[in-house]
Amino acid sequence: MSTLDVARAELALVVLYLNKAEARDKICRAIQYGSKYLSNGEPGTAQNVDKSTSLARKVFRLFKFVNDLHALISPTPAGTPLPLVLLGKSKNALLSTFLFLDQIVWLGRTGIYKNKDRADVIGRISLFCWMGSSICTTLVELGELGRLSASMKKIEKQLKKDDKYQNEEYRAKLKKSNERSLALIKAGMDIVVAVGLLQLAPKKVNPRVTGAFGFVSSLISCYQLLPSPPKSKAS
Description:
8 helices; mainly alpha; single chain; globular
């Protein structure tokens, strides 16, 4: 491939990435929490960017609650243990509730919904739902990692002295394990962010800590949404 072809292919991946509403939302989220880290809760330009970006992100999430509502009523993969099924469905229910209530918060901040006190209460309830969904996600990922670890050990025993990294099934499970480990780290960080936004531990989880954890969590989300590069054709 010529240099121009390589550049064209890379730009195509960038366009594909930026065409995703979810990707744009996570980029805005990184800007939001990066600004929160810089402002540390103090008035100024950084705090203005934090607040305006937070409001803009709510537009990206309009009617997004339907996604998790669909996942809630969809069947789970066969063989999934009941505790993990219940935790997964709880996560979907809580996240869908958060996204639905977040629309009311947006209506309140834009002035369409006039009852500010009620909008603030709904905002706190929505954040508790988000924190609950993050806790459920953490537990699901821990459970799934345990299942993956057990199945990988089983494959290792079957292969005995053979190179396990040459086994396609083992490599697929290892990749899945790495993906779930990253999702676990992100979910744990999101719990800290929720604690900070709810001010449940204001001395330990201040705006700067909230911003730092939210920024790193956003970068992980951006990475998770990266499109797979096209496989090069054999000449």
